[in-house]
Fold each of these.
Amino acid sequence: MSAINIPEKTIERLSEYRRTLRSCSEQGITHIFSHVIAGMHGITAVQVRRDLMLIGFSSDTKKGYDVRVLIEFIDGILDSRDVQHIAIIGMGHLGQAITKYFNSKRHNLSIVASFDVDPEKAGQTIDDIPCYDMDEFERRVEELDINIVVLSSPTDVASELVVPIINAGIKGVLNFTSKPLNFPRGIVVENYDITTLLEKVAYFVKENEE
């Protein structure tokens, strides 16, 4: 089944299920029931079963789902056959933190380059990733076959990056700036506003305390 036919929220949950299943596998757990997965994610067992039925996964559930088999099945849904190359734009504290956390954690996703306008960073290797000046962006994207970028640049310059990203032929953008960005159809965009999410958490904490 193509991921295009799977709802966005289901894709997010499948990624979360896979992380949980990998952790279980590392602990020596070989089988797991839907209600156990559900409890670890704060959802219902019905939701878990619906998600797995939607992607065509079926299993003898008398002793639970086979953890390794389910991981491999989700791999086949979420992962591309070829390695997808990623670039970070903005190698400040956030960009470096993202690189340190993510790189080498997924065999099919690889951060291969970073970009920054700071001359003290451009031309350097930061966390084993070469950092280039933004003037080289389009050329390096083509040269390194980059199709996804992560924006961790200052918010006030985020809008200026839209055109270079379009011109370079980037297919996916994960935007960590606090400014939502719009791109033409054909470019997948995820705007991830940490400030808004933190304020949302703080609001519900406040409400629970009152």
Note: Residues 108 and 156 are 32 Å apart (CA to CA).
Amino acid sequence: MALKVVISGRSLAPLNLLTEAGFEVVEGEANTTEELIKITKDADGALIGIWPLHDRQVLEACPKLKVVSRMGVGVDSIDLAAATELGILACNTPGANTTEVADHAMAMLLAQTRLLAETGQFTKAGGWSDNPAKMNDFRREVRRIAGNTMGIIGLGNIGRAFATRIKGFGPEQIIAYDPYVPQTVGDLYGVRMVDLDTLLTQSDFITIHTPATEETHHLINADSLAKMKSTAILINCARGPIVDPVALHAGLRDGEIESAGIDVTEFEPVDAEDPLLGLDNLLITPHLAGWSPTFIEQSGQRQVENVIRVLTGEKPHGLANPEVIKTIAVMRATDPGRWQGIPDFSTAITV
């Protein structure tokens, strides 16, 4: 009997690879937890999106499920603790959109230091000829990156890619906060590792590239913003919940920081009446940073390959809960359960 792979919702992945590999493929719409359980309860693998959440209730209701695979680097829609406890691999496709996100963050910083949106709209509205005096304001407000301090929160793949980009603009120094990255790694990218307070108080520009976890939830809040320079520019192309939206609105409104550029919000899509949208010193894009045709092709293929590899005894492209390998080893030695008859791939993964 063929192993079953479920796709909950619209997928951009090449599903033909699954059928060619001999799997039964089932596509279904799921907008609630109950609907998700209904289509996934007897699945061996699942291609998933951001919603609905694959929380403990869902995972516990799927006794055959061995692997869930999501496009991109985010796995915040999966209960990693529950998945690890149950012996389910939570896979992603790291590196597939590193270039896109780093480029987008760089573009957001340039757009704000050079006032691209404001001056572009002003010029198209005829302001260059009709209100030439305004040009003097713009000339005083545009800024250079060279000679300033660039702060990076999260020095993983994307943070490192951003560091290589910003270096060419000549900042006086690049500093980063990441409690999981040693200075020896920072040295490879010309980055000085510092604590969070140092980064907040010293940086002229700050960009966020850390995952959304309990540890990073509202990492940027009222206290964080109060420590920043009044001339600071904040960029967030990571995850919305890292920044407290109420605090960000107040900080921008009251001039605690100069401006911000965000590609993500705590709740998405952002409500049309959200007060953040009324701020002139906020540049916002619709969670677009990680996307491009190249990303769609590469990440979709890797998302499918994660499932194929795991169910045929090979190492996946990305594993967000490597501790699960120990859980599966214990299961295989006692009661294999969901892993009965599946080749052992654990020797290919370093925990």
Note: DSSP finds 15 helices and 13 strands in the chain.
Amino acid sequence: MNHKITIADRRLLTILLIVFVQMVGASMVHPILPLYAQNEFAMTPQAITLLLTAFFGAQFIAAPFIGRWSDRRGRLPVLIVSQIGTVAAFLMLGFAQSVAMLFFARVLDGVTGGNMVVALAYVTDIMPESKRTQALGYVMASFGLGFVVGPAMGGLLASQFGPQMPFVVAAAAAFATVALTWFTLEETLSPETQARNRDAASARMSPAALLRNVPLTAVLVVTFVGRFGFGLLIGTFALFAEALLFAGYDFADVSLRVGLLLMLVGIGQFFTQIALLPAALRRYNDTVIALLGAVSRAIALFILALAALPVFAALSMILFAIGSGLLMPALQSLVTKTVSPALRGAILGLHQSVMNLAVILSTAVSGALFALDPNLPNWLGAILYSLSLAPGIFLWLWVRNNQLNEGAGLAASS
């Protein structure tokens, strides 16, 4: 059957392209920044992981406000402003003259890093609930495809042109997303909707209302536990690779090989969104898919911890990517179904902040754990992913007995 592309589909395609271009830029930085900080600024592993903490700390504070701002003032202006901040942050990283400048750039990128939250809110605006998980899966596929290109490109650029070049190219990629947004997207929230979101009692959140929302609390617990394990991995993976996987290699070789390993994450995520997630959605609900994702991530980190060899690291990255590709769209879809439409941006911002809080705490301790034993973060991450199955099973049981209703979650604050 031929499928006619609708207006919503065209906007979705534009969002996917924006996410892809931005992830190419951002993922070029990931394999380079820890080694760049270590070799150019003589930073210790503990200080390097605090660079990640600074980014996620700033995003933790800013994400709910940015999401709420987009509910009240529109998706488009918030998306553009946040993307411009990303451009500035990448340029500051590339031309930094001090450790303080590195930290300032990471904080700026974190504060304006709500563009992904707004992009996800945009997708939920234009897609019906029945298609939301798959649409968010396409966003993850675009994310993964960008991760295929970006790390390898970053490693190649660093090895051939020096460690500053990936940051400059990443800034150019981020600037391209500003142009895409400005010229191709239209606002999804009418002025009347924005005004209603600013004024409606249903568009307010309180801590008590959050705690009363049982499915939302369960989703956030699964998110936090799983994301803590993720933070342990990303906080030390480049250093782990240099110490164990590629011991004795020089900076250029380590950068290239780490980039290629991370490229496998992108390939695995893209394959998952295109093939595995659609198949899973035909048979299972979001909670079961989230559980499958957590299991895949746990197995991945157990493999990495047990066998510190490049071939097993490659297998681990693929399984980790499959787990991410199943887990993240399911959780994002579930969290939007627990609140009223007026709170979509805000609740996605809160979801992002919970993820960031987990990464703040995990990256803050990952350097110290790595100093004790380079494999310790992997072991702890594997155990935590296993533990995340408990609240996931509770959520599955709750959803089975209490069908989620759109807008039935958060009541107005009293």
Note: The first helix runs from residue 7 to 29.
